[in-house]
Amino acid sequence: MKTGEPRCKEDPSETFKDGITNGAHWYDVAEASTGAPLSDAVISVAGINHNITTAHFGDYYRLLLPGTYNITAVSPGCMPMTVPGVQVIEGKATELNFTLAPLSNKSISHTTTTNSSPSNTPETNSSNSHSSSSHISDLTHINTSSSASGPQPLQPQEFRHHHNSDMDLFLQRFSTKYPSITRLYSIGKSGQGRLLWVMEISDNPGKHEKGEPEFKYIGNMHGNEVVGRELLLNLIEYLCCNYGSDPEVTQLVNSTRIHIMPSMNPDGYEIAQEGDVSGYRGRNNSNNYDLNRNFPDQFQTITEPRQPETIAVMNWAKSYPFVLSANLHGGSLVVNYPYDDDLLGISSYSRSPDDGVFKMVALAYSRENPLMYKGHPCKDIKEYNDEYFKDGITNGAAWYNVPGGMQDWNYLNTNCFEVTIELGCVKYPPAKELPRYWEQNRRSLLQFIHQVHRGVKGIVTDSKDGTGIPNATITVEGINHPITTNRAGDYWRLLVPGTYHLTASAQGYKSVVTYATVPDGDAEIVDFKLTRDPSSPVIQPNTHEEEFQSFIKQLSVGPGLDQLIQNTATPSSFRYRGYKELSEFLRSLNLNFPKITSLRSLGQSVEFRTIWALEISKNPEMPEPSKPKIRFVAGIHGNAPVGTELLLDFATYLCINYGKNAALTRLINETRIIILPSINPDGRELAKEKECSSSVGMTNAYGKDLDTDFFGNASQRSTEAQPETRAVMELIQQRGFTLSVALDGGSVLVTYPYDKPVHKGVCGIVKDKSGKPIVGAVIVLNGGVRVFSGEGGYFHVLLAPGSHSIEAVAEGYQQQRQKVIVSSYEAAIPIVIEFDADNRIFGLPRELVVASAAAAMTALAITACIIWCVCSVKSNRQKDGFHRLRQHRDDYEDEIRLTSMGSKKSLLSHEFQDESESDEDTLYANKL
Ligand SMILES: [Zn+2]
Asked: Ligand 1 center to residue 228 CA distance, Å?
């Protein structure tokens, strides 16, 4: 345990199962004359025919049941030595150090025996603070007594409550001090704009190493449950300080990519109070939502708006090939594993297909925390005093029903297994108790990370060229939970020890079946070589969805997005360009990438500056009506220039990666992206480099706020539209856009079909009886949302799974109505609406439409994904949508929805709604 490579591996079932819960011994063996540690000394216990040997630092570890033993240490060249009557008591390791005398020397050997004090047995009824002090003194004692005989891991020094700025500095300090094993990155911002930090600790920070599993810890999701936050900072300190000297830490960091997020809810933390035992102040985020009820759920519809912290974590979880994770809470003392809820919403055991694995990893944690393992955690707190958790673990739903929790979402939507760990009965204990929490959880935290190396792992490759196959499926017979391979074809499948029947399959390949035996405490390597199947089955209806997911994964785990986030996260790369510079920049993009860009002027501002539209697509000059068009607009308010810069970066990113990154290439090939970086260049020029909060430059040169200058139709106008508005209106009224994204300063308005299974929709063609496409037909969805058919009669619309009614109206034709079912499984539903006096409907070749629909939807979601990532790291907090939300919150429930879907006053946002809003549960606007 101490070394991370206990050699009791050789005899795992016996010692691991029984010994660890009860008593253990650990030793240091040193040579007397020099004090040098003796490795490979043999430790034998009289009466037990199983010897162990000391590790590199002379340390060793002998699991034993409580009792009295005679123990002998033997090392070549030294006098053997026996210590009789060593007592092992319940729940606490006994320390026994040997100092062996060299054979050539007659000096007397001596031993140090330090039995943990009998008064310190865990079942004492002493209060927490009491036992706290004794634990600490033990710790100190151990360090002192063994310092002469081989290095002990250094313990963290910083035990205090770290407020947000303190925590930020702590993280920066460690990432600066240990650059070779750390990378500090942010995955987004909280509701109040605080960065959500993650510390990566790995021997190759910033890189996924083929075959190396990724692990994460998340703390402080409930802002007032602070123990996890502090423990994770302690863990960062522990890993950093002991890397290279402590064998366990070194081995762990070398073989695992560890991501640590100390605080998921920094806003809630700010208002939480030290001493809070079981309160709620600061539990929720700044919009007063409980983040652990905010994730999409398999049984219930979560109606509360998805929070920025939630979205950031979801996006993060999908961007890395995480294998195992824990979410650290407080208020009880137990490891809680999926599922957290059930169909009926009642408290009863809700078994996931991987119940055995979850129990194994949960027990790995609880076993190392004696108090937790005893299962009567909070006897001193009245309302919980009868709670009992056998072995310190519980199925989530068996305890109480939690819809919308994070752990189930991880398990159901990624390859990552997550549990929720309650670290103590007091949510916000006084700072002086923090050392005790570290001591109680230190072993557990490390042991839990070791669990990522259990089960089977390997690589799925193409037998012909040896390349890894991404998104291949690994299925275990009897467990209905396939795992998919990462970009390089590597995979991890956590399993309890046993023999399994494994299948690897991938599109276009013959499946391979094999058996594997998973040993205790280690992962079995099972590589698969797949051969291409020339008679690959015809494309299944599900293929597009799978392809889509593979596509997203490929993009998200590849260096592309990762790097993009890293690059854009650097504030130094961020600068405001004035009008002249912006125009030059757009021109040079066009000059450098003439094949995939076209630049045109939409018109001019009041002061005769050009309003540019940059198109990025495969054939920018050719009309391709079957391709979906996506529009990005920024700079409505000249004083909020962030959106403009974002779009310029985004455009550069797309152009540079065309032909390099497969996903982006496909995106550009299959869609038409129109970028309007600045529609108020006059205001922008005025506001340039001014304070963001200044209102200088918000309006155009006539003092008109352009955001209020867009109206749904011309007849509603009482005044003439501004020149800028007129220029942009022309583009808007082309009506061919499938998705529109408006970036206004920091408030990013993206309707983002984020969760599986929401990348769905309807696409089709409106034609008349003769087959002639009808342009400009109005498609009314569910009686409200409207889109228009564009060139070639094509239309696209995003819809949530479910039943929808579609009406089509075109001048001179009879109105048509259809019901469509958008399934959760198919990528997009093709529809052909034909106008005809007879009302007769006929279809296009189905294949054609299906292909086009799938391509469209895929591309859309990817764009949204990219944009979301870019925005999440860069957007500033001005005009933060959640601030607006909060203002309205107290007034009306409906108001929240309305605001969260975007202001209805302008056509820009209106249209946005028109084309995308169809189901608030799945298609939502996210304002950062
Ligand atoms: Zn909690």
From this structure: 10
Between 47 and 430, the more confident residue is: 430
Is the model's pLDDT at 907 over the cut of 80? no
- Expressed in angstroms and rounded, the spacing between residue 221 Cα and the centre of ligand 1 is 7
Query: Which has the minimum average pLDDT: 15-24, 349-358, 469-478, 579-588?
Result: 15-24
Domain boundaries 455-537, corresponding CATH code: 2.60.40.1120
Cis peptide before 27 (omega within 30 of 0): no
Distance, CA 616 to ligand 1 centroid (Å)? 46
Determine the Cα–Cα distance for residues 923 and 754; give it in Å rounded to an integer. Answer: 8
State the CATH architecture for 164-453.
3-Layer(aba) Sandwich (3.40)
Å from CA of 421 to ligand 1 middle: 9
CA dist 834 and 818 (Å) reads 11
Domain with residues 593-749, CATH architecture: 3-Layer(aba) Sandwich (3.40)
For this structure, is 915 an active site residue?
no
Which DSSP symbol is given to 787?
A: E
- Identical topology for domains 164-453 and 761-926: no
Please say whether the beta carbons of 675 and 650 come within 8 A. yes
* CA 631/CA 184 separation, integer angstroms: 33
Whole-angstrom Cα distance, residue 721 to residue 731?
Answer: 15
Reading the block at residue 830, the tokens are 């093709």
Q: CB of 503 within 8 A of CB of 472? A: no
Give the per-residue pLDDT at 848.
27
| Residue-level pLDDT at 223 | 97
CATH number, domain 7-146, options 2.60.40.1120, 2.40.420.20, 2.30.30.90, 3.30.70.920: 2.60.40.1120
CA of 384 to the centre of ligand 1 (A): 15
Overall CATH class of domain 761-926:
mainly beta
Cβ partners under 8 Å of residue 727, min gap 6: 602, 603, 604, 611, 679
CB-count burial class (<10 Å; 0-12, 13-18, 19+) for 525: exposed
Radius of gyration of the chain (CA): 31
Ligand 1 center to 839 CA (angstroms): 58
Q: Pick the catalytic residue from 31, 418, 422, 917.
A: 422
- Cα–Cα nearest to 311, from 191, 177, 445: 191
The pLDDT of residue 322 is 97
**What is the number of residues in the chain?**
928
